[in-house]
Amino acid sequence: MRAEHVLLVSGLVLFAAGQYMGLFWTPPEMHMGDAGRMLYTHVPPAILAMMAFMMASTFALLSLFSPRPRWDHGLVACVEVGVLHNFLLLALGSIWSKPTFGVWWAWEPRITFSTIMFVGFAGVLLLRQVVDDSDKRSLWSAVTTVMSSITVPLTYFVVTKVATLHQELSTPESLSAPMLLTLRVNLFAMVLLTLWFVAMRMRVAASRWADEAPPPLPVGVGGAQ
Amino acid sequence: MLNQIGAVIAKDLLVEWRSPVRTTAVLFFALAIVLLVAFSSGGGALKRQAASTLWMGLLLASTRSLDRSFQVELEQGALEGMVLWPVHPVALFYGKAIANTLVLWLVSLAITPFVIAIFDAPVKGNLPMFIGFLAVGCAAIAAPGTTFAAITSRARAASALLPVLLFPLVMPAMVASARGIGVLIEGDIMNQAPTWFGVVVAFAAVHWLFGPLFFRAVVEE
């Protein structure tokens, strides 16, 4: 069994367990009731989106200073999974917001900055779609990823420091033991599934890169013997 | 280096002077946005919308200006020629970014009186700081915009791609500029404008300082 298969199977098993614990095992949240169970699916994408974007910007910096195809494969995998998590963060947050705050959407700093982060990195994916040359695509997406990554610490700063309509950040101190355990199981499950996605996406990217590479020169042309 | 920066600025301004199509088009584009928002609002909360409309007009207009500034360089391989001449990429970045800033300053200078008049929003707060917001805010758009325009002008769907990349990046500076100008229009009783001004200055400083690193990577490939 390959390492990716282990990640996928263990991630799915943990995810199923985490969802069961979140829906049936943990008690309802003190103020929000059953709507509070959204915590277990809303918080992991928030953490993983930021982690994926920071990983993407690390790959982008590596790509700028020492260009290699594998850094570009890592970059596209991390940006894609980060955009997916960011979308889940916004969509699940919006669904959670209706029963708790009474609105689907509010232009308050946390949501606004999370949306800015989402659009910025979605732009990187869009850029990759319209550039045919693989070397240019790699370089330009590295530059735009590094420039867009400024939105990640800004979003983190707003989430942790700015008081808004959004409730306080969940911490081990603010959660009961069953809630904390359920959150950690769901987070760990999504970490495993994210790693599986990144590994598989890097392999697909490597395969496409090999397909796009020009064929080798025939023997005797350009000095090759 | 300074000579090269000066030469690039002079070249861009000369191109604009000989055929001022970019500045004229950008100016009317910004003006159309301002008028559209003013007419569609119908007068209800006009004064409160003045600052955001001003920056929306400038930001949308900047994409046309930035896009055009590199389109002219790509015609007949002018950009390649400049890099091979050789103009140092850092000088090329600062030259293009300063020229783009000057065009945006000109547009902001032209549309700001219209915004103040149409929205009945005279500046009650610190006027030099109001001008500072316009100056630094335009510079905060131009620096990252120059790098992104260098990328997108050579990609397919350049016109659609530039706003997608640029808008999220400059959003913090635009929010701070709009809020700062908004409080200055209302008189800035709570003295909030200096804080917002600090945010815009910090944003612009980061992009003017580190922009050449990214621009260099883009034009040298």
Describe this structure in words.
Chain A is mainly α. Chain A contains 7 helices and no strands. In chain A, α4 (109-129) packs antiparallel against α5 (134-148). Chain B is globular and about 55 Å long. Chain B has one domain (2-220). Chain B has helices at 2-18, 21-41, 46-74, 78-84, 89-118, 127-152, 158-185, 193-220. Chain B has 221 residues and is an all-alpha fold.
What is the helix tally of chain B? 8
The major beta sheet of chain A can be summarized as: none
Mean of all residue-level pLDDT scores of chain A? 87
This entry's quaternary arrangement is heterodimer
What would you report as the Rg of chain A, rounded to the nearest angstrom? 21 Å
Q: What percentage of amino acids of chain B are in beta strands?
A: under 5%
Using the coordinates shown, work out and report the CATH topology of chain A. Answer: Four Helix Bundle (Hemerythrin (Met), subunit A)
H/E order of the elements of chain A?
A: HHHHHHH
**DSSP helix fraction of chain A:** over 70%
Task: State the name of the first-level CATH class of chain A.
Answer: Mainly Alpha
What is the number of E strands of chain A?
0
Strands of chain B, count: 0
Q: What profile does the largest beta sheet of chain B have? A: none
Beta-strand proportion of chain A:
under 5%
The total domain count of chain A is 1
Uncertain residue ranges of chain B? none
Low-confidence stretches of chain A: none
Topology:
The complex is a heterodimer of chains A (225) and B (221).
Chain A: H1 3-25, H2 39-65, H3 69-101, H4 109-129, H5 134-148, H6 151-161, H7 177-212
Helix pairs in contact in A: 1-7, 2-3, 2-5, 2-7, 3-4, 3-5, 3-7, 4-5, 4-6
Chain B: H1 2-18, H2 21-41, H3 46-74, H4 78-84, H5 89-118, H6 127-152, H7 158-185, H8 193-220
Helix pairs in contact in B: 1-5, 2-3, 2-5, 3-5, 3-6, 3-7, 5-6, 5-8, 6-7, 6-8, 7-8
